[in-house]
Amino acid sequence: MKQKIKLALIAHDGKKADMVSFVMKRLPFFTSDNVEVVATGTTGKHLKHAGLTKVETMLSGPMGGDAQIASMIVNKEVDIVIFFIDPLEVHPHQVDVSMLLRICNVHDIAIATNYSTASRLISPLED
């Protein structure tokens, strides 16, 4: 029996389409019984609209969703974070983004911040 894995999915506004594309290309993986998904509010809404029905949504990132996911990481409730960061935009809640990245590093949680890294992180788990 495979071990369950919980993934947190987050995407800045300019990267939400990339996140939806990433998940849809791997829909059998993301809908398997061994995978749980949590997402920040707006990212989760985009994923649900695209067809990923089993997504636990938090608040949107700027409203505290990043902090909610960081809390889940601290409580050992999240195994992997995929956070598609848009490096070309200024983010008013950058302190929250930095805090989430720091929490991942403090608690040794695998984190991918772009499509290529996320693909390489998820690929071995799809088998």
What's the structural blueprint in terms of helices and strands?
Layout: E1 5-11, H1 16-24, H2 27-30, E2 35-39, H3 41-50, E3 56-57, H4 65-74, E4 80-84, H5 94-106, E5 110-112, H6 115-126
Helix pairs in contact: 1-3, 4-5
Cα shape: globular
Major β-sheet strand ordering? 3-2-1-4-5
Stated plainly, the CATH topology is called: Rossmann fold
Class per helix and strand makeup:
alpha/beta
Number of beta strands: 5
Q: Do you know the CATH architecture?
A: 3-Layer(aba) Sandwich
In short:
The chain is of the alpha/beta class. The chain has helices at 16-24, 27-30, 41-50, 65-74, 94-106, 115-126; strands at 5-11, 35-39, 56-57, 80-84, 110-112.
Structural overview:
- This protein is an alpha/beta fold.
- The chain has one domain (7-126): Methylglyoxal synthase-like domain (Rossmann fold).
- It is built from six helices and five strands, in the order βααβαβαβαβα.
- It has a five-stranded parallel beta sheet with strand order 3-2-1-4-5, sandwiched between helices.
- Strand 2 (35-39), helix 3 (41-50) and strand 3 form a beta-alpha-beta unit.
- Helix 1 (16-24) packs across helix 3 and helix 4 (65-74) runs parallel beside helix 5.
- The longest helix has 13 residues, at 94-106.
- It is globular and about 35 Å long.
- The protein starts with a strand and ends with a helix.
- The mean pLDDT is 94.
